[in-house]
Amino acid sequence: MNIKKKFIRNDGVDGTKLLLLNNQAFRALDSLGNVVELAKLDASDDFRFLTLPKTSIDPTNPEHLTRKTYVDTEINRIAYYYAIVL
Questions:
Q1: pTM here?
Q2: C-alpha distances in angstroms, 38 versus 48, 69, 75?
Q3: Residues in Cβ contact with 68 at an 8 Å cutoff, skipping those fewer than 6 apart
Q4: What Rg, from alpha-carbon coordinates, does the chain have?
Q5: Across the strands, what pairs with 35?
Q6: What is the pLDDT of residues 28-56, one digit of tens each?
Q7: Phi-psi region of 17 (alpha: psi -120 to 50; beta: other; left: phi over 0)
Q8: Quick check: helix, strand or coil at residue 11?
């Protein structure tokens, strides 16, 4: 059954109304109108990003994901420290 979006009020759908099947992707339209698969729970029940997430925020907690530029900067800082100290 398809529901026309004009009949859904703003912020009218919550998590109890949306349940994807196993191995079915959460999708969105990109700026060109193409469907992009974002993430899913795969057949092994592992959460998978299907597109690489991007962030401009550095991690502040050991559980946070991080950016490559942050890791590269930290590696260079440590390498510089050891080059000076050792």
A1: 0.64
A2: 9, 23, 30
A3: none
A4: 20
A5: 29
A6: 999 999 999 999 999 999 999 999 888 88
A7: alpha
A8: coil
* One-letter identity of residue 47: F
53 phi and psi angles, rounded to 5 deg: -70, 150
Instruction: Give me the sign of the Cα torsion angle 28, 31, 34, 37.
Output: negative
Write down the domain spans for the chain.
Answer: 1-53, 56-86
Taking Cα atoms as reference points, which of 22, 63, 60 lies closest to residue 44?
22
What single-letter amino acid sits at 12?
A: G
DSSP code per residue over 24-82:
--EEEE-TTS-EEEEEEE-TTS-EEESS----SPPP-STTS---HHHHHHHHHHHHHHH
